[in-house]
Specification:
The protein is α+β, with helices and mostly antiparallel strands. It has one domain. The protein is built from four helices and ten strands, in the order H-H-H-E-E-E-E-E-E-E-E-E-H-E. An eight-stranded antiparallel beta barrel has the order 1-2-3-4-5-6-9-10. A hairpin with a 2-residue loop joins strand 3 and strand 4. The radius of gyration is 28 Å and the shape is elongated. Keywords: Membrane, Transmembrane, Transmembrane helix. The chain crosses the membrane at residues 7-29.
Length: 181
């Protein structure tokens, strides 16, 4: 009887050992985040520039500002002008909160800027987002507005931000437009 118990015990140990070895050798030990990143990366490759802009516009219109997150600098003045993190905008040592405003007549989205104090944002200009290829309207000397891009001094190959109360002249756009760092 004792011999039979020992044999059953050894059989049990062999089965457990083989099961553990099987799990160790036949299980793929990859991190789920790596796989998700890999899949997201390859899915992103399938979109063209227009489709990516449409996705980012939809995000902005839902109040998701992740597509414009980061540091934005002004090339004319050679300085970091805006830092955007989530719905927070930092500029001139002040903190502002972003909320979606709507679309300009050009189709570019604009963002409302709100501060912690009600008085600080009564006359705040909207922050307009110009995707790659989208022209910034320019005020001409005769008061007309050019939407063709002929007088737009900004770099159309880059995404741009512009804080302005109204349509600006070409010189003023060059001074105020910001690009992602």
């Amino acid at each position: 009887m004792k011999k039979h118990r020992n044999m059953t015990f050894y059989t049990f140990l062999v089965i457990i050992s083989l099961s553990c070895l099987g799990i160790l050798f036949f299980t793929h030990w990859t991190k789920p985040t790596t796989a998700r990143f890999y899949d997201s990366f390859h899915k992103l490759e399938k979109y063209n520039q227009k489709e990516i802009q449409d996705i980012e516009l939809a995000q902005l219109m839902r109040g998701d500002f992740s597509s414009i997150q980061g540091k934005w600098h002004n090339e004319e003045k050679k300085e970091t002008k805006y830092i955007i993190d989530g719905n927070l905008l930092l500029t001139n040592n002040k903190r502002y909160y972003l909320s979606i405003g709507g679309l300009l007549t050009t189709g570019a989205p604009y963002i409302k800027i709100n501060s912690e104090s009600e008085q600080d944002f009564i006359n705040t200009a909207p922050l307009s987002v110009y995707p790659v290829g989208k022209t910034i309207p320019i005020m001409q000397a005769d008061g007309s507005i050019d939407n063709t891009g002929k007088y737009d001094p900004s770099d159309l190959s880059k995404e741009r931000l512009l804080l302005a109360q109204s349509v600006l002249t070409s010189e003023k756009v060059k001074e105020e437009v910001c690009y992602r760092e």
